[in-house]
């Protein structure tokens, strides 16, 4: 819906459906947060009929001999201070994560990729902030303006520096972690039902103030816009709501998995 798709691709064609036919809808959960130096997981796919929006890729983790590379996904995960290479996104869905490995004293991590832009890289040896998450894609299928989805998470950095901000579209902010093993400011999770990425976390084993050392991604959403001359039947396993905009109905699915049909 709109003039473009994720990853800078052209808009897809309208999807034609048959009446009285069941179509599967699944809302993917956000990627799980990591713990300490354990890498977070990729997000889960959201689907409608033949369309799949791939879950976002986990960013790299590093430190303490537990380094792991950034993972590809709908949008790509970011590089860390020690595992610098960002991962690629999926064609027609999202952009790559940024490259890390900048200032060896501040340990800045890059920003995760978004549906609308690449994650910010932090390769300078004098970097004083984590990379910003790439902006998501503005899709105003629900009406109005400024409705962004699938923003990338911001990158973490050491104390006294500036964590990376999450991208428009639900991206969480990165953490600021201390040199004495404490997390000075915690990361924030991706926003629910945006597909936004979680902010980069700390490798610290304790947290002050109390909070998550690393944050998970936001869950997905499926939104269907169709003429108001049709009626949708939604399976009990799905959470949904329907509104109207002019001559159209708009049904938003925010949790679960089941089938829908139209009459």
Walk me through the structure.
The strands form 3 sheets. Strands 1, 2, 3, 9, 10, 11 and 12 form a 7-stranded antiparallel β-sheet that branches. Strands 6-7-8 form a 3-stranded mixed β-sheet, with no helix packed on it. It has strands spanning 23-26, 46-48, 51-53, 137-138, 148-149, 157-158, 176-177, 183-185, 222-227, 232-234, 238-245, 248-262. A hairpin with a 2-residue loop joins strand 11 (238-245) and strand 12 (248-262). By secondary structure, the protein is an all-beta fold. 0% of the residues lie in helices and 20% in strands. It contains no helices and 12 strands.
SSE blueprint:
Layout: E1 23-26, E2 46-48, E3 51-53, E4 137-138, E5 148-149, E6 157-158, E7 176-177, E8 183-185, E9 222-227, E10 232-234, E11 238-245, E12 248-262
Parallel strand pairs: 6-7
Antiparallel strand pairs: 1-2, 1-12, 2-3, 4-5, 7-8, 9-12, 10-12, 11-12
Helical segment count: 0
Give the distance, in angstroms, between the N- and C-terminal Cα atoms: 22 Å
Order of helices and strands: EEEEEEEEEEEE
Shape: elongated
Largest sheet: 7 strands, antiparallel
Radius of gyration using CA atoms only = 19 Å
Task: Bin the helical content.
Answer: under 10%
Q: Which spans have pLDDT < 50 for at least 5 consecutive residues?
A: none
Mean pLDDT over all positions: 91
Helices and strands: which structural class? Answer: mainly beta
**What portion of the residues fall into strands of 2 or more residues?**
15-25%
Overall strand count? 12
